[in-house]
Design goal:
By secondary structure, the chain is α/β, with parallel strands linked by helices. The chain is 34% helix and 19% strand.
Length: 198
Amino acid sequence: MTNALPELDPSSTALLLMDFQHAMVGAIGDAAAGPVVANAVAALEWARANKIHVAHLRVGFEPTEAAGIPHTNKFFAPLRGAGAMLHGSPEGEFVDSVKPADHERVLSKTRIGAFSTTSLGPWLAAGNVETVILAGITTSGVALSTVREAADKDLRVVVLRDAAADPDPLVHDVLVERVFPASADIVSTAQLTARRPR
């Protein structure tokens, strides 16, 4: 499902680029990674050209944070003793083509969603942001959690369907076609970049 892109006011719109890190990009495979990263780059260039707020989110742990992951957390517990996704680790770095500019916000998180362990909510509120445009890996991880949380916070949510991906393409398709439309507008990156915000 692809929707019409709503009107966008640059002063109240933010692009959230979520988890474009080597580990996550590698997890979706080369065939999917190339187009998804290229679309994220196109969205980022459009946002910069149109003075849209930009935030880059990443998973990253300090050693004490990793050691404190409880065994009940099925997703993150395997990282506890592996030393993976620590700040500064190669797998946790942003891919080169989606690296943040100096003036763009970078938020590190220790859980899946973009809101729960970050200052994203206050940052959006301080910027009077009403609309968030989401691009991220994975669709069933950060995108799913963030779509739901953003909608619960009464934000207008736009998902770039081709700037998100999942290791399971079927899961991606079900989410963007069947699940996300209840909470978000689903558009292509080409639809976004063809639009001049008002």
